[in-house]
Amino acid sequence: MAPVDLFGSVKLSLGGETKVIKYTHHDVHRISWDEPLTVPVEDGEPITLPAGKCNLMFFPGITFNETRRQHGAMRDEHAEAVSALFMLLADDRAYYKAKDVVGTPPILALAVANTEVSVGLIVDLVEAKPERILASHGPGPFVGEGLMHVLAVNGRFDELWQLLKLSHEKLNATQMTELVQMQCTGKFFKTEPQRDFGGHLFAWLACFGKIDLLSQAVDELGYDKWHEQPCTMTGFYPIHTAVRADSVKSTMFLIHRFGREQLGWRANGYTALVLAARSGRQAMVVHMLNERTLQKWVWGRLAMFSFELSGSADTDDIDDDPNSQGVSMLEVIVRQDSPKEAQEMLLDSFMPVQGKGFIFHLIERKWDESRQWFNISALLLLSYVISLTILTVRLPSLGDDFSLSVSSARTLIYLILLFSFLLVMEEVRFVYLWCARRP
How many structural domains is the chain composed of? Predict the structure, then answer.
């Protein structure tokens, strides 16, 4: 949604004179000045800024109106001057609240520029007015994306932590809740990979593997509930986000810091382990399975571990469990549409235990437990085929020596109907079990 006023101007007092700074945001944010400006800077002499214009997406780059021969190329002092100029412009509420064609406010345009000067200017702007950190994209493809999201995706983690601490000190509880729960919900975030970043700031940090920042947020700022907040787009919790990002260290951090109960949290029917298997994250599956083992004893180089496959909230996702509310790890691995890396977990070489692959051993165990049903179905089908064949070949109506008697044919017909009924019931049982297991 484009803003109503696409052009405007701000009058500033510079060097004892009133100067007009023009701005536009009909496509992106630009500022311009038609005559040289004398810009006061902190702890220094005023700097003369030749007439020109600046696209905030490329801040502090300036396109001068005059040729370079007259004033030379852009210098560091020009970057310092345009930063000071923007600090003055930001005090104009109409300009600061303006959105460009995709809903970006000026301070987020500076974040997108991602230069040392633009990020330093953002820090200065927030220090001057801490509530500026709540800036976010308006209606458009990036709606919900905030300043902290942009800093995170651009790898500006030092500045992010600095602003997060500042906000914790200066903002009230309502504002801080808004900041840490801000979620990206625009169309841009419905596609991979950004769809899997996790929605809110701390989930993004988990996705990027920044466990040092997450630890500081818990220890120093007291934010110890963020792992319970799911993404509004995908429904995934931060532990699912870490799994999708294949970040073992973030996943292990979440488990060790906030407890194993997260292993049982389901989103869209998937626990973190099932999601790892569905995504073909072999290393992640190994680490998460190892987290579920308990050491019973150790003797030199020998040790025994126990592993509970079902019966508790955090382990009913490995094998089929009638009490489970979603799919299991084995189900997603054997699916035909699973990635090759997921199907390779069925091999005897994956996680070998006593000469057999762990998941391969589970498949063998399931076969041992259910083979009788397969044998019964096969026997019923074979009996049905034999009875139908005999009845067809030796019809009483043929009238030869090999024809069946009417009573024998009637018996075979009854058997065929019985076998048909039992086979149909077996298919109904199979469909019922499959439907009952769907998330």
Answer: 2
Tell me whether residue 130 is in a domain. yes
Q: Mean of the pLDDT values across residues 286-298?
A: 84
Tell me which amino acid residue 133 is. I
Closest CA to 185 of 147, 220, 233, 224: 233
- Alpha carbon 57 to its chain's center: 27
Instruction: Compare 320 and 49 and report the one with higher pLDDT.
Output: 49
Q: Span 71-89, mean pLDDT?
A: 83
Write down the pLDDT at residue 1: 38
Domain boundary among 137, 169, 204: 137
Any domain includes 358: no
CA triple 93-94-98, angle to 5 deg = 110
Residue 2 confidence (pLDDT): 39
- Assigned domain for 350 exists: no
The 3-class secondary structure across 146-184, one letter per residue, is EHHHHHHHCCCHHHHHHHHHHHHHHCCHHHHHHHHCCCC
Q: Does residue 145 belong to any structural domain of this protein? A: no
The pLDDT of residue 128 is above 90: yes
Q: What are phi and psi of 317, to 5 degrees?
A: -105, 0
- Residue showing tokens 């040729």: 67
Residue 402's domain spans which residues? 373-436
| Per-residue pLDDT at 321 | 54
The last residue of one of the domains, among 137, 169, 185, is 137
Please, where are the H alpha helices in 291-399? Answer: 329-333, 340-343, 358-393
